[in-house]
């Protein structure tokens, strides 16, 4: 059934809007849902598609080039509170290692006493003054074992710093993608809202003179309201995304361009030796360091088989009525004996710590192995999706052009052309999402394998 073709004025207005990608059906503007990068909470949505060539997309001012993401991560690392905490603990471990190199196991103990047996009101009797200084001694091998524990703790904290840096890089990647996506959505929503306002005014005037149906006017009016609401939601999303990025990198930091990360060939080649990548992963290194700390603590517990003995010097000063002063000097040794009441809890706690650390090391290896497999599959899937969805977008674009021509000559109604254009827009959005997911997957793979960004 043929419909009356639109007049020249309306045709000149509607055609550019259809070509621009107006996606309206039953008064609703269709927006693509955010995509989730597998294994990581990275929101990726509509962004301009880049061609499958080596030509990079235009970069933001001051944040273009392959090293831009690395620079933003470096800024976030300087401001990261976890880095300050771990570095403080690192210095504390060094201080403990230095203190354990002392001659004695603790500080000196000073004691003094005074004894007098004089009766009140008489000088007959004795008066004794006594003082002593003692220090605790290291048990055999206890001092070096204490130093070893502190050194292992410091080394483990170095690996924990690397783990925190890796996690921060992923958080910056998530925030960067969110900011870019939100900016794209705001720009698209603002342009669409302006076009819809213009279209609504023209169709309203045309409906008054009977050139278009009232149903088309109501449809465009509802779509204009929904487009305005979508613009406000996009602006809110943009503000929230930028606040998240600024909370990591500081105020005034722009999102870096990640479209340069599109050549994972070398990184995928490194995955052929998965075992080496697993052992070099910061999380596995940190878990291995925890095992070394537990082993050092167990060795220290074995060498602390009894309380530390003490050795000291005594000085005694005595006085008797009508007798000369009597001074004496000597030394004393205090050796507490071993006891299961003290030693068994210390040894069992050290063994429990070693068992826990060993189990966590194996869990870390399994987690890293699984993650490497996931990010590799994610890169392969993103590469395939990018090509497939780009072809689909091209095909649906041609279909939409054909439906538009049919509408112009009156063969199809306006809603048919709009639905065809809606399918084309949604396909293009899916292609844009796949393109962005491709860059995110490549960058995520580089982070997982420790490649220089």
TrEMBL record:
Q: Please report a single Pfam family linked to this protein.
A: OEP
Q: What segment(s) does the record annotate as region Disordered?
A: 37-66
Q: Which UniProt keywords apply?
A: Cell outer membrane, Membrane, Signal, Transmembrane, Transmembrane beta strand, Transport
One Gene Ontology cellular component annotation held by this UniProt entry: cell outer membrane
Q: What Gene Ontology terms describe what this protein does at the molecular function level?
A: efflux transmembrane transporter activity; porin activity
| Presence of keyword Transcription | no
Q: Where is the composition biased (Polar residues)?
A: 38-47
Which N-terminal residues, if any, form the signal peptide? 1-37
Answer whether the UniProt record assigns the keyword Transmembrane to this protein. Answer: yes
Q: Where in the cell is it found?
A: Cell outer membrane
Q: Which PANTHER family match?
A: OUTER MEMBRANE PROTEIN TOLC (PTHR30026)
**Protein family:** Belongs to the outer membrane factor (OMF) (TC 1.B.17) family.
Q: Per its record, how is this protein called by name?
A: TolC family protein
């Amino acid at each position: 059934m043929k419909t009356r073709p639109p007049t020249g004025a309306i045709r000149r207005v509607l055609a550019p809007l259809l070509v621009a990608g107006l996606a309206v059906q039953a008064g609703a503007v269709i927006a693509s849902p955010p995509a989730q990068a597998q294994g990581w909470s990275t929101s990726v949505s509509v962004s301009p598609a880049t061609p499958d060539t080596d030509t990079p997309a235009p970069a933001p001012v001051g944040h273009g080039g392959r090293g831009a993401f690395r620079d933003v991560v470096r800024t976030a690392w300087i401001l990261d509170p976890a880095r300050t905490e771990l570095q403080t603990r690192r210095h504390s471990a060094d201080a403990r290692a230095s203190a354990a190199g002392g001659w004695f196991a603790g500080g000196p103990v000073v004691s003094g006493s005074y004894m007098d047996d004089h009766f009140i009101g008489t000088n007959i009797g004795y008066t004794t003054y006594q003082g002593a200084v003692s220090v605790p001694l290291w048990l055999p091998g206890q001092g070096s074992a204490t130093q070893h524990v502190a050194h292992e703790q410091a080394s483990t904290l170095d690996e924990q710093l690397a783990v925190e840096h890796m996690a921060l890089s992923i958080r910056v990647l998530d925030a960067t993608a969110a900011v870019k996506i939100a900016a794209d959505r705001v720009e698209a929503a603002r342009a669409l809202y302006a076009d819809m306002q213009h279209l609504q005014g023209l169709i309203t005037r045309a409906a008054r003179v009977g050139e278009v149906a009232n149903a088309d006017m109501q449809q465009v009016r509802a779509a204009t309201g929904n487009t305005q609401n979508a613009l406000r939601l996009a602006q809110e999303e943009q503000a929230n995304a930028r606040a998240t990025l600024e909370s990591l990198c500081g105020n005034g930091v722009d999102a870096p361009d990640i479209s340069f990360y599109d050549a994972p060939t070398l990184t995928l080649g490194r995955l052929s030796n998965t075992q080496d990548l697993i052992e070099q992963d910061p999380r596995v290194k940190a878990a291995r360091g925890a095992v070394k700390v537990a082993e050092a603590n167990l060795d220290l517990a074995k060498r602390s088989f009894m309380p530390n003995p003490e050795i000291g010097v005594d000085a005694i000063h005595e006085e008797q009525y009508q007798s000369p002063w009597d001074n004496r000097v000597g030394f004393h040794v205090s050796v507490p004996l071993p006891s299961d009441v003290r030693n068994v809890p210390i040894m069992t706690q050290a063994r429990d710590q070693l068992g826990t650390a060993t189990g966590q090391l194996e869990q870390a290896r399994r987690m890293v192995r699984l993650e490497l497999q996931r990010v590799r599959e994610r890169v392969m899937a993103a590469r395939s999706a990018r090509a497939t969805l780009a072809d689909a977008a091209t095909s649906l674009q041609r279909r939409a052009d054909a439906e538009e021509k049919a509408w112009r000559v009156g063969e199809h109604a306006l809603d048919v052309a709009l639905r065809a254009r809606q399918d084309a827009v949604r396909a293009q959005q899916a292609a844009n999402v796949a393109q962005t997911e491709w860059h995110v997957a490549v960058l995520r793979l580089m982070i997982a394998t420790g490649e220089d960004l």
